[in-house]
Amino acid sequence: MTFYQGYEGVVKFNASGSSAAEVTAVTSWSIDIKKEIIDITRNGDTAKRLTGGLISASGTVELLYTGDNNSFIEAINTTEDTGAALFELYLHQSTNKRIIFNGIIDSASYGNNRDDVVAISCSFVTTGNITLEI
Fold first, then answer.
1. What is the pLDDT of residues 86-105, one digit of tens each?
2. How confident is the model over 10-38, as pLDDT tens digits?
3. What are the boundaries of each domain within the chain?
4. What is the third-level CATH fold of 6-133?
5. CA angle, corner 26, sides to 20 and 31, nearest 5?
6. Sheet hosting strand 21-22, strand order edge to edge
């Protein structure tokens, strides 16, 4: 049995949706994938019937500002974003265990502390299909 450590994860990104490059200084990432539940109960049924519906996801990427990760953190400042940005969230840096999707960075929080490095938290939402290669 193989266990994966958090420090082995990687985030790759490309705002135009083409080949993604690694985002530097990522300290963590998370994604929450959700499926809508649709009630398909009919008159006369004696129990509730449900089916799965549309799938969507949202999440965050936490990183330290280095100047080398500007294309990622500046994606929040794009108007009329079509959702074509390519995200690849890797469970391990040397394998293809990853989650791939197109999305939009919908918020960014910048923090500056006199005794620490500048930390940035970016939230995203997915657009279209989510591919799980895990």
1. 999 999 988 889 999 999 99
2. 999 999 999 999 999 999 999 999 999 99
3. 6-133
4. Pnp Oxidase; Chain A (2.30.110)
5. 75
6. 21-22, 10-14, 85-90, 98-111, 119-133, 50-64, 26-39
